[in-house]
Amino acid sequence: MKIAVVGTGYVGLVTGTCFAETGNQVTCVDIDANKVARLQNGEIPIYEPGLDVLFDRNIAEDRLKFTTNLAEGIKDAEVIFLALPTPPGEDGSADLKYILGVANDLGPILENYAVIIDKSTVPVGTAEKVRQAVAQHAKVDFDVVSNPEFLREGVAVDDFMKPDRVVVGTTSDKAKKVMEKLYAPLVRQGNPVIFMDERSAEMTKYAANSFLALKITFMNEIANLCERVGANVDDIRRGIGTDSRIGKRFLFAGIGYGGSCFPKDVQALAKTSSDYGYDFRTLRSVMAVNEDQKKKLLPIVMEYFGGNLKGKTIAVWGLAFKPYTDDIREAPALENIKALLEAGASITVYDPEAMDNVKKLIPNITYCHTAYAALDDADALMIFTEWPQFRTPDFVKMSKLLKEKVVFDGRNLYELETMKEQGFTYYSIGRETVQSSVPVI
């Protein structure tokens, strides 16, 4: 099939590359000439494991192309994906100006029937708005379909090539046949393509992400209660996660969720609810708890150092909102670093992928080439991202580099017994505090 993907951000680039891998001819379109030039030269502007292999192969085999020209990109395309940003406005609603702008541009340049697909996460009713925008100047027949993505950063290629399910919102039999043909190579194992109306498909994406955010937030509240009653949240996670009605995933306690999806989608669903006169109280609670949870470790650090961080150096491991990505959108590390700087601390940091992105926002901290370099002569370590290389460190080396053997762990990477044996003071989330030394004041 001939496919056009408008937008070469995270979703658009993964979508275009993976569909090229299944034998389609894909042209990705973006108004950013610099980004398109980099892509044409074989440079991927995002970090996503496994994407580079597919990207290089499909460019070499001439199945994947890039252009800034919308008319050129969509020429003869049977399918046109809209994978454009929908940033939250001040009131939490998703901004549709990019999607509707392209929809307006598509109408007069469509030369043949095409299925126009909303791949971006969009509010209920967006497919109708896109249809109206295209129809103003369209001279040929077309359909607008909602096809939300369910990609997890860090494993997006596997998620796309082996989807749990594909959700398609359309009431057009003609569009349905096109979508069945498009996704057939990806669902040969029998995973379902679930057809529904456009509004239900749009709501499905928001419902899925909001429910997962709810699971994370619930476990963080359980963790906070565990600290008061003397229970261990890890044991509770195992105890409830083996219940098939609950499941094991998204039950890890920590310092809250971030990224490009959960915060934005929870806000947008809450705004949609408000627009329709419904008070979605659980979502309001999720947002409030998550904001507090992000900064949970700060008062603990302040208390440990007697309320004064001036002259202290805090080492930070992890900047991305999760491992296997360079995405720092809504990352808890950023809020914590800014608060530590305001309190007078100096900061040394290490992240395997995200440091270049953070340098643009926070230049006045020390970026280190290794995790251990960040520890050198630091007064404490704070952990914000569960990168695998942080899970089994050389504790002896850590002890020699840190001024004080104290770790504030926002991701519960280490076993309590291990930290006791290694002689660390260790603060984590929803578990016993390991006290192995007297706090320095």
Automatic annotation (TrEMBL):
It catalyses: UDP-alpha-D-glucose + 2 NAD(+) + H2O = UDP-alpha-D-glucuronate + 2 NADH + 3 H(+). Gene3D superfamilies: Cytochrome c1, transmembrane anchor, C-terminal (1.20.5.100), NAD(P)-binding Rossmann-like Domain (3.40.50.720). Residues 315-416 form the UDP-glucose/GDP-mannose dehydrogenase C-terminal domain. Substrate binds at F150, L151, R152, E153, K205, F250, L251, F252, A253, G254, G258, K322. NAD(+) binds at D30, K35, T86, T121, E153, K264, R329. Pathway: Nucleotide-sugar biosynthesis; UDP-alpha-D-glucuronate biosynthesis; UDP-alpha-D-glucuronate from UDP-alpha-D-glucose: step 1/1. It is an enzyme of class 1 (oxidoreductase). The active site is at C261. GO terms for molecular function: NAD binding; UDP-glucose 6-dehydrogenase activity. It comes from the Bacteria. InterPro entries: 6-PGluconate_DH-like_C_sf (IPR008927), NAD(P)-bd_dom_sf (IPR036291), UDP-Glc/GDP-Man (IPR017476), UDP-Glc/GDP-Man_DH_C (IPR014027), UDP-Glc/GDP-Man_DH_C_sf (IPR036220), UDP-Glc/GDP-Man_DH_dimer (IPR014026), UDP-Glc/GDP-Man_DH_N (IPR001732), UDPglc_DH_bac (IPR028357). Coiled coil: none annotated. Its EC number is 1.1.1.22. One of its GO terms (biological process) is polysaccharide biosynthetic process. Keywords: NAD, Oxidoreductase. PANTHER family: UDP-GLUCOSE 6-DEHYDROGENASE TUAD. Belongs to the UDP-glucose/GDP-mannose dehydrogenase family. This is UDP-glucose 6-dehydrogenase. It comes from Dyadobacter helix. The lineage of its organism: Bacteria, Pseudomonadati, Bacteroidota, Cytophagia, Cytophagales. The gene is tuaD.
